Amino acid sequence: MAIELTSLADVLALRFDDIIDVRAPAEYADDHLPGAISLPVLDDAERARVGTIYKQVSPFDARKIGAALVAKNAAAHLMGPLADRPGSWQPLVYCWRGGQRSNSFASILSQIGWRVQVISGGYKTWRSLVVQALYDQPFPCPLIVLDGNTGTAKTEVLNHLPAQGVQVIDLEGLANHRGSLFGAMGPQPSQRSFEGQLAVAITRLDPARPVVVEAESSKIGDLRLPAGLWRAMVQAPRIAISAPLDARARYLSHAYTDLVSDSARLDAALHQLRPSHSAERIAEWQDLAQTDQFTALASGLMQHHYDPRYAKHRTRSTQAMTELTTPTLDQDQLPDLARRIANALHQS
Which of 42, 161, 215, 322 has the fewest other C-beta atoms within 10 Å? Predict the structure, then answer.
């Protein structure tokens, strides 16, 4: 039996013991439904082989070889990951568009006696709902942007706000990137996966209440923000954290310990600043990095690179700005700063 998904809320309301993605591993890695597990009925090489036979030999030969491979892989799943599933187990199965791969595997599972269903339209239905939510519909909530110069602990403060009853979307967390030249934190998700996670986060919001996001450019690392969200952020009122340069420098030297402990990565990031600064200044920053003077390095980068760019950007902004000043960004002070931001939201 195929189930129809007409909204992302339908996806979040699914109540199955397992959601099984039977597409090839590369397809699953690019994007998948929330919580889905990967049990491919054709691996990447097998899928390519069957597709080549379909085009170059005949659809019949492709289906025959494909069926044999599906049966082989289904047997491996039944003897392996699914070996402990009880008779009451209820799975949901999907492939690319709800065709032969999902229906073949579902048929095998149903013959065992499990109550299995497939998604009508498969992964393409999910992707269509994501695109509708992000590109065809307006952002559903009043939006507030948490702003502030580099080093004002915006991401950490943002993540303290839910404890104050404030809705947030952590865009940098979803993108696995801190949003600057120095912000890489490891591999980023694919654009589709990022958009899927973002669409789910938006769907979970209460549209009657404001939501806070951190100020970002239109890209976070290699990932693009959907145009509708970006426009809403540009037009949104802002709450800006203001802190002294020395407090911000100390905060950054602590927050970026992963970067300062990787001298090659830090040097490569500094090298990318060469088009914007003199050779003497780059050499000065490299010397600070090589001598472990990371607080001084952070201070120099903000004073000569980031702060002037923030100031130039703000001269073009016409949105309302509420500034909250703090003398320190010590860890034990950030919850109180979040409380002040929550109070400012309630007063607006």
Answer: 322
CA angle centred on 55, ends 53 and 59, rounded to 5°: 70
User: CA 189 to CA 58: how far, in whole Å?
Assistant: 36
What does the pLDDT read at residue 1? 79
DSSP annotation of 318 reads: -
List pLDDT tens digits, range 314-338.
Answer: 777 778 889 999 999 999 999 999 9
What amino acid positions are annotated as catalytic residues?
Answer: 95
Residue 234 to residues 147, 279, 294, Cα–Cα distance (Å): 11, 34, 33
Residues with Cβ within 8 Å of residue 105, at least 6 apart in sequence: 20, 22, 39, 41, 70, 74, 93
- Low-confidence residues in the chain, pLDDT < 70: 348
Confirm if 162 and 343 have CB atoms less than 8 A apart.
no
Largest CA distance in the chain: 73
Classify burial at 206, counting beta carbons within 10 Å of its beta carbon; exposed 0-12, middle 13-18, buried 19 or more.
exposed
State pTM to two decimals: 0.93
* CB neighbours of residue 1 within 10 Å: 9
Amino acid in position 126: W
Q: Residue 31 is encoded by which pair of tokens?
A: 């994007």
Residue whose entry in the numeric block shows the structure tokens 């009853």: 165
Q: In what order do the strands lie in the sheet with 167-169?
A: 167-169, 211-214, 143-148, 238-242, 321-325
Q: What is the pLDDT of residues 208-246, one digit of tens each?
A: 999 999 999 999 999 999 999 999 999 999 999 999 999
